[in-house]
């Protein structure tokens, strides 16, 4: 993402949200830069302004930006410098790019901004994350500290940061006096090094020891960094002694973090350690459905055809960020070209994402499985005969090829005895209709899909 690309997006943004909104809220923003971690920083006149834009237009902006720069994960809003200059952020430090807050951290604490969208309301609960969610909820109630620290861990993009921000939002809403400090382990280190450099260690210690709740994200970052670990250990102990709540996240369990001092490891394990499991199909579908609800208010006229969300939930199982990014891109493309969101648009706009998450299901495999199920020969499935006994299984196989592989319609047609892509399209549509009206076909297709994906 470059300043020029941001400039090029302006017209489309204006068309999406209307002249008035655009002039009031988007035009005053300026592009600052993008970090290696995919965080785009925009300069806003005030922190209220940044916060308003984040809450009301954040998803739309991310959608628009991702049409040009799919690697973008998040937008941070920086408050304009005194001279108004939009300086480039210093080299890829998350610390710089997130300094001023979407929801400013209280009392000049060196925390990172909280993402206004990461609340318990927007967190979808399913089997893989129910324990982590319940633990987070308990901590967010604020009562007496029962487990300290709460240690949340899990793979990339499974909701650790979302849950931490949700806890911070809720604690602050319940008790605005509370000092809740959220920052990444990287920022902790940065502050520590800065304090050393500026000979302000006393201030540093005092400040960290004065918070009521400390949240440190991605703690695995401090592994192998000896003096930062040491300082972290002292901060940790001082807060636990005062019975202050600590919440930590990492990408793996404490005993799997290499180069972590043993005394820190055992401290981290001394509270409640819960993991966020990889998502399952139901959770992914739930997240997509809840996201669609958010998008509906932004793009009220956009249609989303049946089967699209289910397809995405099946196909993109890597992490929620990728899943959300795919949906965001779909909405942006659909609004750009003024078309409904259907499987063709999915194939056109998400081919890279789909390729990356390609399951190893081949057209051959689908043809064989379907032929076997309907007890017909493979040669009849592919051959020219049009009798229903062969035609229906053939259409089902075509439908499954479209659903479970990222092959184009012409390619599928070629693999079914050199048929035209319109024949494939007709077949796919027919099965879509029949799935609505014929319970037996619907059941057969679902069973075949499961068998193929098993
Ligand atoms: N259960 C969920 N419900 C709704 N949104 C979710 C859920 N899980 C993850 N997300 C969304 O997925 C995206 C990635 O989540 P988050 O940043 O919390 O992941 P993370 O575990 O902290 O990843 P990383 O290890 O990269 O820091 C966010 O936009 C978040 O809102």
TrEMBL record:
<comment type="similarity">
    <text>Belongs to the DnaA family.</text>
</comment>
<feature type="region of interest" description="Domain I, interacts with DnaA modulators">
    <location>
        <begin position="1"/>
        <end position="102"/>
    </location>
</feature>
<dbReference type="InterPro" id="IPR013317">
    <property type="entry name" value="DnaA_dom"/>
</dbReference>
<keyword id="KW-0446">Lipid-binding</keyword>
<dbReference type="InterPro" id="IPR027417">
    <property type="entry name" value="P-loop_NTPase"/>
</dbReference>
<dbReference type="GO" id="GO:0006275">
    <property type="term" value="P:regulation of DNA replication"/>
</dbReference>
<dbReference type="GO" id="GO:0005886">
    <property type="term" value="C:plasma membrane"/>
</dbReference>
<feature type="domain" description="Chromosomal replication initiator DnaA C-terminal">
    <location>
        <begin position="362"/>
        <end position="431"/>
    </location>
</feature>
<feature type="binding site">
    <location>
        <position position="157"/>
    </location>
    <ligand>
        <name>ATP</name>
    </ligand>
</feature>
<dbReference type="GO" id="GO:0006270">
    <property type="term" value="P:DNA replication initiation"/>
</dbReference>
<dbReference type="InterPro" id="IPR018312">
    <property type="entry name" value="Chromosome_initiator_DnaA_CS"/>
</dbReference>
<keyword id="KW-0067">ATP-binding</keyword>
<dbReference type="InterPro" id="IPR020591">
    <property type="entry name" value="Chromosome_initiator_DnaA-like"/>
</dbReference>
<dbReference type="InterPro" id="IPR003593">
    <property type="entry name" value="AAA+_ATPase"/>
</dbReference>
<feature type="region of interest" description="Domain IV, binds dsDNA">
    <location>
        <begin position="335"/>
        <end position="454"/>
    </location>
</feature>
<dbReference type="GO" id="GO:0003688">
    <property type="term" value="F:DNA replication origin binding"/>
</dbReference>
<feature type="binding site">
    <location>
        <position position="159"/>
    </location>
    <ligand>
        <name>ATP</name>
    </ligand>
</feature>
<dbReference type="Pfam" id="PF00308">
    <property type="entry name" value="Bac_DnaA"/>
</dbReference>
<keyword id="KW-0963">Cytoplasm</keyword>
<dbReference type="Pfam" id="PF08299">
    <property type="entry name" value="Bac_DnaA_C"/>
</dbReference>
<keyword id="KW-0235">DNA replication</keyword>
<feature type="binding site">
    <location>
        <position position="160"/>
    </location>
    <ligand>
        <name>ATP</name>
    </ligand>
</feature>
<dbReference type="InterPro" id="IPR001957">
    <property type="entry name" value="Chromosome_initiator_DnaA"/>
</dbReference>
<comment type="function">
    <text>Plays an essential role in the initiation and regulation of chromosomal replication. ATP-DnaA binds to the origin of replication (oriC) to initiate formation of the DNA replication initiation complex once per cell cycle. Binds the DnaA box (a 9 base pair repeat at the origin) and separates the double-stranded (ds)DNA. Forms a right-handed helical filament on oriC DNA; dsDNA binds to the exterior of the filament while single-stranded (ss)DNA is stabiized in the filament's interior.</text>
</comment>
<dbReference type="InterPro" id="IPR038454">
    <property type="entry name" value="DnaA_N_sf"/>
</dbReference>
<feature type="domain" description="AAA+ ATPase">
    <location>
        <begin position="146"/>
        <end position="276"/>
    </location>
</feature>
<comment type="subunit">
    <text>Oligomerizes as a right-handed, spiral filament on DNA at oriC.</text>
</comment>
<dbReference type="GO" id="GO:0008289">
    <property type="term" value="F:lipid binding"/>
</dbReference>
<keyword id="KW-0238">DNA-binding</keyword>
<dbReference type="InterPro" id="IPR013159">
    <property type="entry name" value="DnaA_C"/>
</dbReference>
<dbReference type="GO" id="GO:0005524">
    <property type="term" value="F:ATP binding"/>
</dbReference>
<dbReference type="Pfam" id="PF11638">
    <property type="entry name" value="DnaA_N"/>
</dbReference>
<protein>
    <recommendedName>
        <fullName>Chromosomal replication initiator protein DnaA</fullName>
    </recommendedName>
</protein>
<dbReference type="InterPro" id="IPR024633">
    <property type="entry name" value="DnaA_N_dom"/>
</dbReference>
<feature type="binding site">
    <location>
        <position position="161"/>
    </location>
    <ligand>
        <name>ATP</name>
    </ligand>
</feature>
<dbReference type="GO" id="GO:0005737">
    <property type="term" value="C:cytoplasm"/>
</dbReference>
<keyword id="KW-0547">Nucleotide-binding</keyword>
<dbReference type="InterPro" id="IPR010921">
    <property type="entry name" value="Trp_repressor/repl_initiator"/>
</dbReference>
């Amino acid at each position: 993402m470059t300043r020029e690309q941001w400039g090029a997006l302006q017209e489309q943004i204006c068309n999406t949200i209307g002249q008035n909104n655009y002039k009031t809220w988007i035009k005053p923003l300026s592009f600052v830069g993008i970090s290696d971690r995919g965080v785009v920083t925009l300069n806003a006149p005030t922190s209220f302004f940044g916060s308003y834009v984040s809450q009301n237009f954040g998803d739309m902006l991310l959608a628009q930006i991702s049409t040009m720069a799919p690697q973008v994960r998040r937008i941070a809003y920086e408050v304009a410098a005194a001279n108004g200059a939009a300086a480039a952020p210093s080299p890829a430090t998350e610390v710089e790019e997130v300094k001023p807050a979407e929801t400013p951290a209280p009392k000049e604490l060196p925390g990172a901004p909280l993402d206004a969208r990461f609340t318990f309301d927007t967190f979808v609960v399913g089997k893989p994350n129910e324990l982590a969610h319940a633990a987070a909820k308990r901590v967010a109630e604020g009562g007496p500290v029962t487990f300290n620290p709460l240690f949340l861990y899990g793979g990339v993009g499974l909701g650790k940061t979302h849950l931490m921000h949700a806890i911070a939002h809720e604690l602050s809403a319940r008790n605005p006096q509370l000092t809740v400090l959220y920052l990444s382990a990287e920022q902790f280190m940065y502050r520590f090094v800065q304090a050393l450099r500026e000979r302000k260690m006393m201030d540093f210690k005092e400040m960290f020891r004065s918070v009521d709740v400390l949240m440190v994200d991605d703690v695995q970052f401090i592994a192998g960094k000896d003096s930062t670990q040491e300082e972290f250990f002292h901060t940790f102990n001082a807060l636990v002694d005062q019975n202050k709540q600590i919440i930590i996240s990492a990408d793996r369990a404490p005993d799997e973090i290499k180069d972590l001092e043993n005394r820190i490891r055992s401290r981290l394990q001394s509270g409640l350690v819960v993991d966020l499991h990889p998502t399952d199909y139901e959770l992914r579908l739930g997240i997509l459905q809840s996201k669609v609800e958010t998008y509906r208010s932004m793009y009220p006229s956009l249609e989303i055809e049946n089967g699209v969300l289910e397809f995405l939930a099946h196909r993109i199982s890597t992490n929620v960020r990728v899943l959300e990014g795919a949906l965001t891109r779909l909405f942006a493309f659909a609004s750009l070209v003024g078309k409904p969101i259907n499987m063709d648009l999915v194939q056109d706009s998400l081919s890279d994402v789909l390729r990356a998450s390609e399951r190893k299901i081949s057209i051959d495999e689908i043809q064989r499985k379907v032929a076997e199920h309907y007890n017909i020969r493979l040669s009849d499935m592919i051959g020219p005969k049009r009798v229903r006994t062969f035609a229906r299984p053939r259409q089902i196989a075509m439908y499954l090829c479209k659903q479970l592989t990222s092959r184009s319609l012409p390619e599928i047609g070629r693999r079914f005895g050199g048929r035209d892509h319109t024949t494939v399209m007709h077949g796919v549509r027919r099965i879509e209709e029949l799935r609505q009206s014929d319970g037996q076909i619907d059941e057969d297709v679902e069973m075949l899909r499961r068998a193929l994906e098993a």
